[in-house]
Amino acid sequence: MKIYEDTSPRNPPEWCWHRGWATVHDSAYGLLMKFAFLNALTARELAELFASRERGKRTKLLRTMHFDLRDSENFDLAAMAQAFGTDMNTVEGAFLDRRFTNPLASAAHLKWCEECLAYGMHLPGLQMDLITRCPLHNVLLRKTCLGCEETIPYTFAPAIFDKPFCCPNCQAEMGSHLKVARSKLPALPDGSVIYIERMNRFIETSRRESSVSLHSLVRIR
Amino acid sequence: MLLTAQRPIDIDDHPIVRKRYLVATPTIDLVTQRIVKQIKLRNPGAILYGYPRFGKTSSIRYVIHYLNETFPGSVCVNFRCETHKSGSEDSFLIALLAAVGHKEPLAGKISRKRHRLLEHICMLADRSGKDWIVFFADEAQKLQVIEYEWLRDLHDALELKGIRMITILVGQPQLLDQKSALRKSMNTQIVLRFMVTEIRFGGIVSAEDVATCLAAYDASCYPPESAWTFTRFFYPRAFAAGMRLSTYAHALWKAFERAHKAANLGERIEIPMAYFARAVEHALSEHSTRDSDGFGFSPAIWDEAVLESNYVLACEEIRLGLPLPDWRS
Fold first, then answer.
1. Alpha-carbon distance B125 to B159, whole Å?
2. Is the per-residue pLDDT at B1 higher than 50?
């Protein structure tokens, strides 16, 4: 028999999070929803954790509790990276303004692939106006809820985040597989990364081409 | 100074002086093996009962250390049951959330806390790679029927997720009365889940038990990677000359026996772990300045150590406050 030093055997305080649930392809919507779901946090509690620390801005964000998920300036990215156990690049890539050069060419309401979102996966590129199909499943993206036909704002707001992966209007379930998955989610289909990268490249090149043609038009005139 | 006498750390930093160590008694060893068996069989629960100061709470910590060593990554949750006027699910869930190590045990309504707890336990279990988790409910005699029901709900919810929750109810012998009462009130669902196995937590009852415990002081080292056993740390010269604490097992047992008889505490001697450890700590730390090649513990040192341990005063308190136990076999 031996003697142990009586160090505290308590489990150190931490957030509930599965590292495998944060991929480099997740959007801010996907990451925050998964975190809210696992920790059963309300939108306000989530905002207290992740709203930008910039003085003045934070007060406004917490007061209005309604801010754009496309804009990384609204968030404390370092706090998010720490909570999600990932790096800053992954968190930055979750926001449209960091990932794409023309984030304004995007929808202000959620666009999603039903098959992806059932597992909690939402790609930031899906929000872009140019994208109408899921690069992984090749299905048309939904812009309205299947149950109530309402759009879902792509914003951080209590109505949307208080019940993660549910339609804020009719409470229709959108993340059914994720909610029973425990930590292991099925791996992305073969070639997924290539398809996602191709989609992201398409978004960027299309933008450049459109801006080039616009520039040419101006010159001609 | 001899090389053998140069201690690697300051004497005040040693776990013996700081009272921050866990030594196994034969009872703790038995309890540990019974709990390991519970885990291997995936039995959902057991009662571990014993009188106060017998070292039940320390034994939980010992078992957790042992389990972490034997089953690396295993998840053990130690929570202390609290007295409530009436059962409050909110407080109960807060205590469990804090015990499992969730960063936000306080926020939100009960339904949110319940969900948070379930997900957090799933996370811990998945991370450990095991399909079981052990809950130690300390002072479990304070649990009310409704709190057992909440534990049962958690147990069932985890079962659905494929995780076996093994609950060890640790408390005073009143736990056995609770078990009878639950059986009488037809709450067999609780008894069957948590109370089928009974493990008695006893004290030290023989010179052999004392020898087993003392041998641990001779063999275990601190700092752990050093060659400084607990005995050597306090008596380096004597240790180098061959002195071992375990050879004094009979002398220490006799000292307890003398004190016991002098105070008319009855026939049967059962030394609670807390007082035994205190006596050893006293003997180790109070006379270390007398360390020499020829040092040995005299009966007078042991008598003094037993006196300082407050063993007699405690036994008198137990005799006044509680009828001495007629232990279940």
1. 12
2. no
| Residue B18: φ, ψ to 5° | -80, -5
Decide if A14 and B103 are in contact by the 8 Å CB cutoff: yes
| Residues in A lying within 8 Å of B, measured between beta carbons | 1-7, 9-18, 37-42, 45, 182-184
Distance from CA of A45 to the nearest CA of B (A): 8
Answer with the residue of higher pLDDT: B168 or A9: B168
If pLDDT is split at 50, 70 and 90, which confidence band does A181 have?
Answer: confident
Residue A14 lies in a domain: no
E-strand stretches of chain B:
21-23, 45-49, 76-80, 132-138, 164-171, 197-200
Most A CBs within 10 Å, among B68, B76, B90, B112, to test the A interface: B112
Q: Tell me if A97 is assigned to some domain.
A: yes
pLDDT at B154: 96
> How many angstroms separate the Cα of A170 from the Cα of each of A151, A174, B109?
11, 11, 22
* Cβ proximity of B59 and B26 under 8 Å: no
Containing structural domain, residue A82: 21-213
Q: Could you tell me if B48 and B202 are in contact, meaning their C-beta atoms sit under 8 angstroms apart?
A: no
- In total, the C-beta contacts within 8 angstroms joining chain A to chain B are 107
Q: Which of A40-44, B5-9, B55-59, B287-291 has the lowest mean pLDDT?
A: B5-9
Distance from CA of A85 to the nearest CA of B (A): 14
SS3 B21: strand
pLDDT tens, B3-26?
456 889 999 999 999 999 998 888
Smallest Cβ–Cβ distance between A183 and the set B65, B123, B219 belongs to: B123
CATH code given to domain B26-200: 3.40.50.300
